[in-house]
Amino acid sequence: MLNSEITAKLRAIVGGTRFRDDKEALVAHSYDGTPMLQSLPDGVIYPASTEEVSAIMKVLHEYKIPLVSRGSGSNLCGGTVPAHGGVVMVMHRMNRILEVDLENLTATVQPGLITAELIAHIEGLGLFYPPDPSSMKISTIGGNIAECSGGLRGLKYGTTKDYVIGLEAVLANGSIIRTGGKLMKDVAGYDLTKLLVGSEGTLAIITEATLKLIPPPRAKKTMLAMYRDLYGAARTVSRIIEARIIPATLEFMDNPTIRVVDDFAKLGLPLDMEAILLIEQDGDPETVERDIELIREICAMESADRIDVAESREEAEKLLTARRSAFTALARLRPTTILEDATVPRSRIADMVLRINEIAKKYNVTIATFGHAGDGNLHPTATTDARDAEEIHRVELAFAEIFEASIELGGTITGEHGVGIVKAPYLEWKVGAPGMEVMRGIKAAFDPHNLLNPGKIFAKETKKRVVLQHG
Predict the structure, then answer these.
(1) By CB distance 3.0 to 4.6 Å, which of 161, 184, 377, 429 could disulfide with 415?
(2) The domain spanning residue 20 has which CATH number?
(3) Same domain? 438 vs 337
């Protein structure tokens, strides 16, 4: 708990109005994008510099006060819910692009910068920063780094970890460290940069990031392929990759998602299709034309019912925006929307979607599935009502079985949303007891008093795997 002595020290660091403990501020920072999770912090603080972050941590370390660092709170794993109270550190004042280095093709930015603002600025300079999470209009770069965010372009271009080459971060005791830099090669010791990416604020507080930029593609083409047969869509995904074609975007929507997205975006999609693939290729104009034609042939061979190629960039953007709006569209159906991200090898996509459908039927819950087909990252999404405790219990049982099914099919419990609170009880299923022990050792080395985002990643108890294995 905070007392007047601690709050006075914190206010002295950031200024009186930049530390708040009024009820409005506490409630506003008690939850994030995850449904049904809420916990009040004891205070909220808004630093403006690395030096202020360091000074804040020295105070909190002295009094053993927990700290949760936060951007926009758009994550879906409970990653920024202050489960143990303490102080929430909001990074929005640290939102500048510090440098764009055209000689080294890097951008150095602060963590509170909105992702879409960075992308727009970089594209305005004729360069390209590929990571594009669906939340990019509100999510921050710091949050993207904490969760190792993916996006629609992940198949071809990779995720956030592939573009973070240097970090400045503050440790739990207030020490400042720098990792990596403007280097394409650096094997001096352990790769602390990659370790901090995806660590969900449990190891350090990111205060600055150096990001790799690349030249933009010269051309793009977008197409929709529509299927009455789920396996035809899944085989298409595998055949495209087998043909040595790596699309920029290869997205999947099942029938329930198609219906909701069409109602939301008014695209005139056929509502009797079992699956739709949204495919975009980019690169040199000749390569794009060749790849799109080959993809069209593959779709036809796998009995696509209809294949449409966008005639203009505006039409293509409309299709991409519709896919990005899938979560928003589904959220209109019921008061509570729970979106997960089980990931399987792409050759098992159809098997996984069918298993999700079987599980939804078994527990009598509504689950729509969409996601990044090209990298096997599916988003089974339950539309429910948190006020119905019995239905919520069935949803929880369904997702536990979905996580187990994904592991059984050679996958994982999360591809891009992170572990946070939601997946912590299932993490040992994926990494095993020895893996958990290694992770606990890393956490203890960085944060021996467990002050940084406590209650995340490491659950008090691991869920037992009780689902019968399928043949």
Answers:
(1) 377
(2) 3.30.43.10
(3) yes
